[in-house]
Specification:
By secondary structure, this protein is mainly alpha-helical. The protein has one domain: Zinc/RING finger domain, C3HC4 (zinc finger) (Herpes Virus-1, 2-Layer Sandwich). Helix content is about 50%, strand content about 5%.
Length: about 140
């Protein structure tokens, strides 16, 4: 596993080359290691976008529109393209965390953000939502 300083050296050496612009994170301007994609098709490196969302009240860094961690999905296609580019250009591929750890992090972030957004359900509110369904079932005679 590479250390943070060797990863920084890798990043700076890659920027000296003709790295395709689509492979660079718009936040850090560094080669993406673990790209996540928004619903609108924008891609960011996982570490950078998670930090951005935590520090900037859940807004997209490019569009300034609301953006939640639960709106992000892994961009496996871009991740594979970056790996192929690294191989073709004889560059060390950036180290990616294990699939299980990455997916767990996305799930936990989604769970945390959905809990913040959800209002506590009251018993009265639950009964009101059920009432039309029950009425519709019994009124079909």
């Amino acid at each position: 596993m590479s250390s943070p300083s060797s990863n920084n050296n890798l990043q700076s050496s890659l920027l000296d080359e003709d790295v395709p612009h689509d492979f660079l994170c718009p936040i850090t301007q560094e080669l993406m290691v673990d790209p996540l994609m928004t619903r609108t098709g924008l891609s960011f490196d996982r570490e950078a976008i998670m930090k951005w969302l935590a520090e900037h009240d859940h807004t997209c860094p490019l569009t300034r529109q609301p953006l939640r961690a639960s709106d992000l999905v892994p961009n496996r296609y871009l991740e594979r393209k970056i790996a192929m580019w690294c191989e073709e250009n004889q560059r060390q591929k950036p180290q990616v965390r294990s699939e299980e750890n990455r997916d767990d992090e996305v799930f936990l972030t989604f769970l945390a953000s959905s809990r913040k957004e959800r209002k506590p359900a009251t018993q009265e509110g639950q009964q009101r939502r059920r009432r039309p369904v029950i009425t519709a079932i019994f009124s079909r005679h």
